[in-house]
Amino acid sequence: MEFGIFSVSDVTRDPVSGETPSEAARIQGLAEIAVHAEEVGFDVFAVGEHHNAPFFSSSPTTFLAYIAAMTKTLKLSTSTTLITTNDPVRIAEEYAMLQHLAKGRMDLMLGRGNTAPVYPWFGKDIRSALPLALDNYNLLHRLWREDVVDYDGNFRTPLQGFTSTPRPLDDVPPFVWHGSIRTPEIAEQAAYYGDGFFSNHIFAPSEHSLRLVRFYRERFEHYGHGTQKQAVVGLGGQAFMAKNSQDAMSQFRPYFNEAPVYGHGPRLEDFASQTPLTVGSPQEVIDKTLGFRDVFGDYQRQMFLIDHAGLPTKTVLEQLDLFGSEVLPVLRAEMAKDRGPEVAEAPSHADLVTAKYGDAAPRQPRPNANRGDNVTGGSPYQDSPAKRGAAFGVA
After folding, report:
1. Are 271 and 388 members of one domain?
2. Total count of domains within the chain
3. Residue 62 Cα distances to 30, 65, 97, 111, 182, angstroms
4. Measured between alpha carbons, how far is 190 from 110 in angstroms, rounded to an integer?
5. CA 34 to centroid of chain Cα atoms
6. At the N or C end, where does the chain have fewer CB atoms within 10 A?
7. Which region is the signal sequence (predicted)?
């Protein structure tokens, strides 16, 4: 099972010091947090995509490539990549490039996001959000698996003889998670393609998230990808720790009270009792997280939000130290107990390569520069799919 941290990249005023970090300070601070996450034993680091203040991560692939260069084992991901307002061609290109630079240590989570104004900023209509998510992923899925694509959809200009470059590393696409907190069509989409499903699992009781997770698992089995236990599920969560619960509550309360999302709303005690948020001792974080397994059964990835609401970088690094020394070792041992052999693990790039090629060497695409161009879609091989494939060494 994988454990990680994820960030929404907010640049928020610290209610204790009264200071708001600069974008530059916050970007470098989050990079420091990501590197330290690997050092204390986390498996995954993920950053969101936003195009509005107070968030900075408008280009997650750039940020993650930087983190890849400073780490050795950390898997890099997103939380989320906007499948609705991004061109699928750009997603295919940018994340394939990240996959190469990270040597396969990456995957991505696709979602619709939660910022309504982003749709007109990128020339989209929010009323088409769900059809956009479905159509755009259909194209992205093909772009990573077909060397030459002809496409005529509902939301972008047609493609003729188009090849996305670079091709995926080892000709194996990155693993994709589909994230949603309320939309069964997204869970259905994840199940249909045999991809992973991620429930943000932050703002509502576990029973709310369970409905979509259960539906995804049922549909995963329906589509013949394996049993429900072989479906790939990820959960979010939030935590703030101190050596004892009283100190944790007093230290986190001003940040909770002023948080951009739930500040000036419910009491901290009420929110923590009704949602997956844990504010307390390391043992309380362990106990509540292990309780997720009682609700959802065995799952594959647990992510924690720990860097939001204006918490200074120093405090977040201290949180990581507590996770590494007191929480992660216990969670790993306890989650492994009684875990059935049929339960899937979150796939690595090596796993995906083995699943496709077995013991054979993976294919390494070498595009033919004379096959045409991707600007106009012109290609001398348009008259025959077989010829188009032959231009890429595909029989």
Report:
1. no
2. 2
3. 13, 5, 10, 19, 30
4. 10
5. 15
6. C
7. none
